Amino acid sequence: MDAHLRETQKDSQQVYDGDFLKVQRDTVTLPDGKEAVREYIKHPGAVTVLPLFDDGTVLMERQFRYPLGRVFIEFPAGKIDPGEDELACAKRELLEETGYTATDWQHICTIHNAIAYADERLELYVARGLQEGERKLDEGEFLDIYKAPLSELIEQVRTGRITDVKTVIGTFWLEKIVNGQWTPSASSSPAA
């Protein structure tokens, strides 16, 4: 159907093999028969958790992000380990970063946040029935957690205080869900 748009890989070379990210440089044949080079980041995928309390507030994080040199407001999130189930990853990240567990999980959507230069995907989940516990931060991980009204997050997106793409999209999803405009298409409950 989209053959007139497809690029075909002719050659592929890994040019960087890091602990977390890998960089590929591929030669491709364009739809017009010419060749081009595509450089992109290989990413294992990640989850983002939208922790929603019964009173409508949301559990958020503040974390320093080195590439941009500042603290960002974000939802809990993390990398999917090799062979790890996405929902299991979401539960693990929520517990590790915030200390919370949840009794109700709903998959919201998949987003691709950097399609021009990375294959990364993020799986977004709403977590409800939140129960507080003890955080288990990874070594070298430093972040603050706090509760915020959804209206405050929406305003922070509007004013540009929240710019992290997963958090912007997650905030809009939560607004639609809380207002009854959108319903997640899939749901699952955590295993006992």
UniProtKB/TrEMBL annotation:
Keyword Hydrolase: yes
Keyword terms: Hydrolase
Domain Nudix hydrolase: 43-170
InterPro entries (UniProt xref): NUDIX_hydrolase-like_dom_sf, NUDIX_hydrolase_CS, NUDIX_hydrolase_dom
Obligatory cofactor(s): Mg(2+)
Catalytic reaction(s) noted: GDP-alpha-D-mannose + H2O = alpha-D-mannose 1-phosphate + GMP + 2 H(+)
Organism: Herbaspirillum chlorophenolicum
Pfam family, one: NUDIX
Annotated protein name in UniProt: GDP-mannose pyrophosphatase
Similarity-based family: Belongs to the Nudix hydrolase family. NudK subfamily.
Keyword Ribonucleoprotein: no
